[in-house]
């Protein structure tokens, strides 16, 4: 069976985290992997149901998603996204949540945290440098967002990176 995902970049990032958890055999890796798999199955199921959404709504959500993927390092506000698609902020949030299952701001944070994980694992950037690079003005806010999304602070990722 062949399928094309509307959330390709996001799903690619989630598969990357899944592989990292599974092959790294981190504590509770099986539980985390089950959660990620359930999320991916949910997204795939939701995308299978897209026929029930009007094509204009799908196009709007895709345009917002693409804009976020292209500009995630910049300070983005909902007003900027809504101006990009010529709709009100409430309409953009409502349509995006209905189709993607999260708000545009939550999606932005997911993309940034995924990018942060890659940067922290594959570069010599510090947490503060990574936070600034990804558009967070405050490292403590970045730490809070990172922990909310991954369940652990970014410092734990660095300690895992240093472990043999």
TrEMBL record:
One of its GO terms (molecular function) is DNA-binding transcription factor activity. It holds the Pfam family HTH_18. Keywords: DNA-binding, Transcription, Transcription regulation. Residues 62-160 form the HTH araC/xylS-type domain. The keyword Transcription applies. InterPro entries: Homeodomain-like_sf, HTH_AraC, HTH_AraC-typ_CS. It comes from the Bacteria. This is HTH araC/xylS-type domain-containing protein. The lineage of its organism: Bacteria, Bacillati, Bacillota, Bacilli, Bacillales.
């Amino acid at each position: 069976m062949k399928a094309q995902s509307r959330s390709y970049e996001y799903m690619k990032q989630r598969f990357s985290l899944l592989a990292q958890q599974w092959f790294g055999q981190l504590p509770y890796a099986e539980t985390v992997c089950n959660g990620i798999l359930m999320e991916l199955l949910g997204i795939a199921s939701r995308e299978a149901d897209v026929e029930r959404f009007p094509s204009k709504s799908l196009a709007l959500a895709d345009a917002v998603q693409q804009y976020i993927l292209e500009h995630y390092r910049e300070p983005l506000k909902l007003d900027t996204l809504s101006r990009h698609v010529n709709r009100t902020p409430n309409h953009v949030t409502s349509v995006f949540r209905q189709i993607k299952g999260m708000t545009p701001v939550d999606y932005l944070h997911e993309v940034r945290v995924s990018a942060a994980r890659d940067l922290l694992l594959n570069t010599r950037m510090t947490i503060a440098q990574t936070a600034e690079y990804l558009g967070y003005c405050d490292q403590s806010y970045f730490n809070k967002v990172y922990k909310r999304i991954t369940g652990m602070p970014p410092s734990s990722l660095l300690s895992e990176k240093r472990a043999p």
